[in-house]
Amino acid sequence: MAEQIRVAIAGHGNLGRGVEAAIAKNPDMRLVGIYTRRSPEHLKPRDAVTPVHAMSALPDHTDRIDVLILCGGSKDDLPRQGPELAALFNTVDSFDTHARIPEYFTAVDAPARANRRTALISAGWDPGMFSINRIVGEALLPDGATYTFWGDGLSQGHSDAVRRVPGVAGAVQYTRPVKEAVDRVRSASRPTLTTREKHRRECFVVLEEGADAEQVHNAIVTMPHYFDEYDTTVNFISAEDLARDHQAMVHGGFVIRSGNTSKENAQVIEYGLKLGSNPEFTASVLVAYARAVHRLNAMGQYGAMTVFDVAPGLLSPKSPAQLRAEQL
Amino acid sequence: MAEQIRVAIAGHGNLGRGVEAAIAKNPDMRLVGIYTRRSPEHLKPRDAVTPVHAMSALPDHTDRIDVLILCGGSKDDLPRQGPELAALFNTVDSFDTHARIPEYFTAVDAPARANRRTALISAGWDPGMFSINRIVGEALLPDGATYTFWGDGLSQGHSDAVRRVPGVAGAVQYTRPVKEAVDRVRSASRPTLTTREKHRRECFVVLEEGADAEQVHNAIVTMPHYFDEYDTTVNFISAEDLARDHQAMVHGGFVIRSGNTSKENAQVIEYGLKLGSNPEFTASVLVAYARAVHRLNAMGQYGAMTVFDVAPGLLSPKSPAQLRAEQL
Ligand SMILES: NC(=O)c1ccc[n+]([C@@H]2O[C@H](COP(=O)([O-])OP(=O)(O)OC[C@H]3O[C@@H](n4cnc5c(N)ncnc54)[C@H](OP(=O)(O)O)[C@@H]3O)[C@@H](O)[C@H]2O)c1
Ligand SMILES: NC(=O)c1ccc[n+]([C@@H]2O[C@H](COP(=O)([O-])OP(=O)(O)OC[C@H]3O[C@@H](n4cnc5c(N)ncnc54)[C@H](OP(=O)(O)O)[C@@H]3O)[C@@H](O)[C@H]2O)c1
C-alpha cells in the first residue's frame, strides 16, 4: 500500500468521535491525533493509543498532518476555527448553517489560497450528499421539481427547544415525513406542499414532578417557528423509557427530483438515507472527502471548495483504472 | 445569457431522439445538427427546422459544433465511431458494454488527447448515475455491501431473445426486482442473494397462428443465460394488447449500499430511478455531461474521461457561487 494519509481531528464531540470510528474503517488513512480546547488528559479517545493534544499545539504540528477534520459546532466554533486552521492545514468541515455558507466560504478561501491549502467546507449529508443530489437532479431533469424530506430523525435543535419548556425534565423530538406527501411526490405529480403537509413532529417527554401535562403539551405544540406550523404529537413517557429507547441519534431522509423529459414521459430520481447514527454517517462523509482533499491539494487545487467541486472518483481509495474496470 | 453551447447528435435512434428532446429543455444549449449514416432526407427530427446531415459531413463541420453526442449502439457503432470522432470533436457517449470499457477508454483517449479534445464515455444511468452511486456508497461506507436491482423495466435484449423463439409473433420482457430481496437489503442485513432471488422476469407474448403455447412457454423459461437462472412468467396476449400496453420503454432500478460505521450503527444509502422512458432519461444524462465536457475542455482537460472524473457542479447551468448560495 502507498503511504497512509495522516488525518487529525479538531474538536471531540459526537462528530469527532464519529471520525475516529470512520478512520478505523479506512486502511489508507491513519489517525495521528485529536486536538481539543478542553484539557487533553480528560478526553477519552475510542482507541487509547491515539494522542490527544491541546488545540493550541496545532500551529507546531503542521508537518505531522495531511488533512485536519474540523468537528466543531457550526454556530460558534467553525466561523472562528475554519479560517484560522485553513491557513495552516488542508481541512474538511461540516459547516451546516445554510444561509451563511457564502460568507463562510469567502472567509476560508482567502487564508487557504494564500497558504496553498485546500479547504472543503460543508460536507456531510445535508449540506453534503443531499445537496449534490439536489443539483444533479435539477441538471438531469431541468423541467421538474425537487423535494427534500427529512426523517425519521432525531432533531437536536427541536429536542433542545422542548427541554426548555417549563415542567419538562427530559425530551426528544423526531421529525417524520408525511407518507401521503411522499407518495404524491413519488408519483411525479409535482404537488405544491405546505410545511404542515410535508413533515410532522413527534415528541417524547418526561415530566417534572407535579408538572401539568396539558399545559406542557400546549406550550410545545404552539411554540412559534419550532412547532406551530406542524402537526405535533406529544407522548409522555418515563425517564427509564427515555433512557432506554431514545438515545440513538437516528436520522435520514430523501431528496426526490421528478420531471418530464417530454410531454409524454415523466422520470423520478430518489436519493435516500436511513442513518442509524447521524454523527457517525456525517463523519464517514468527512473522512471520504479528506481523501479527496489530500489528492486535490497534491494536484495544486488550492482554496475553499464544496462537495460540488469534487469528482466522485476522488472519494474512492481505488485508482481511476480500477474503478473503470470494476465498477463503471 | 452567455453564448449557447452548440451541440450535435451523431446517430438518430431512440437515444438520438431523446437527446433532441433533452436539448429543448436546456436553454443554455442549442441543437445545431443531426448526423446519420442513412440518407439524411429520410430522417424526421422532432423539430423540422433542425438540419440533418450525412455522417460523412462531420469532418467539415468541426468549427460548428462544441460537443457531439454519440448516439450509436454500443455493440457495433461506438467502437468505431468513438475513437474516430473523438479526434475531431469533444464527445459524450453512453457506451454500455461493461466488460469492454477499459479497452474502449484507451481507444478513445489517444485520439482525443492528441487533438486536445475531451471525450466522456459511458454516461447514462447504468453505466452512469448507478456507477457513481456504487463507488460513492462504497467510499462512504467501506465496511458494507452494494446491491444493484434493475426494474421494473423493459429489457431490449431479453425481448429480442423471446422474439426469436419459434412460434412467437411479438413479445416484450420486463425485469422486476424481487420485493423480499429488496426488503432484506434495505434492512441492512447484507444478505447473500442468488440471481434467482434478486430478479424475476415477466414476458408478454403474442403467438403466431397455430403455435403451441406450452412449447413456446418451455422454450422461453429454459433458454440458457437469458431465462434459465430466473423465475419467469409468460403471459400470452393479443397483438392489440401488445401494441396498446407495452410500447413505453420504462426502466429504472436502485443501487443500495448498506454498511456499519461502528459495531452498533448501521447505515443505508439508496439511489433509485423510476423512468418513464429509458432512452429519454439516458439522453438527459448525456446532455448534462455535454455541458460539463464543454467546460472541462475550456479548462484544458483533454482525453477520455468517465462520470467518475466529473465534479457534480459542472453538470449544472448555474455558477458555483449561485449553487453554494441557493442549493448547498
Ligand atoms: N453537514 C451535515 O450533514 C451535518 C450533520 C450533522 C452535524 N453537522 C455539524 O456538525 C457540528 C458538530 O456536531 P456535534 O454533534 O459533534 O457537536 P458537539 O458534540 O456539540 O461538539 C461540538 C464541539 O463541542 C466541544 N464539546 C464536545 N463535547 C463537549 C463537552 N462534553 N463539553 C464541552 N465541550 C464539548 C468539542 O470541541 P472541543 O473538543 O474543542 O472542546 C466539539 O468539537 C454541528 O454543529 C453541525 O453543524 C453537520
Ligand atoms: N448507459 C446507459 O445507461 C444506457 C441506457 C440506454 C441505452 N444505452 C446505449 O445507447 C445505445 C443506443 O441505444 P438506442 O436505443 O438509441 O439504439 P438504436 O435505436 O438501435 O439506435 C442506434 C443507431 O442505429 C441507427 N438506427 C436507428 N434507427 C434505425 C433504423 N430504423 N434503421 C437503421 N438504422 C437505425 C442510428 O444510427 P444512424 O442514424 O447513423 O443510422 C442509431 O444511432 C445502446 O446501444 C446502449 O448501449 C446506454
From TrEMBL, chains A, B:
NADP(+) binds at residues 36-38, 71-74, 94-96, 123-127. Belongs to the diaminopimelate dehydrogenase family. It comes from Borborobacter arsenicus. It comes from the Bacteria. InterPro entries: Diaminopimelate_DH_Ddh, Meso-DAP_DH_C, NAD(P)-bd_dom_sf. This is Meso-diaminopimelate D-dehydrogenase. One of its GO terms (molecular function) is diaminopimelate dehydrogenase activity. It is an enzyme of class 1 (oxidoreductase). SUPFAM superfamilies: Glyceraldehyde-3-phosphate dehydrogenase-like, C-terminal domain, NAD(P)-binding Rossmann-fold domains. Pfam families: DAPDH_C. The lineage of its organism: Bacteria, Pseudomonadati, Pseudomonadota, Alphaproteobacteria, Hyphomicrobiales. The keyword Isomerase does not apply. The keyword Aminoacyl-tRNA synthetase does not apply. Pathway: Amino-acid biosynthesis; L-lysine biosynthesis via DAP pathway; DL-2,6-diaminopimelate from (S)-tetrahydrodipicolinate: step 1/1. Coiled coil: none annotated. Keywords: Amino-acid biosynthesis, Diaminopimelate biosynthesis, Lysine biosynthesis, NADP, Nucleotide-binding, Oxidoreductase. NCBIfam families: DAP-DH. Its EC number is 1.4.1.16. GO terms for biological process: diaminopimelate biosynthetic process; lysine biosynthetic process via diaminopimelate. Residues 124-277 form the Meso-diaminopimelate D-dehydrogenase C-terminal domain. Homodimer. It catalyses: meso-2,6-diaminopimelate + NADP(+) + H2O = (S)-2-amino-6-oxoheptanedioate + NH4(+) + NADPH + H(+). Substrate binds at W150, T175, R201, H251, N278.
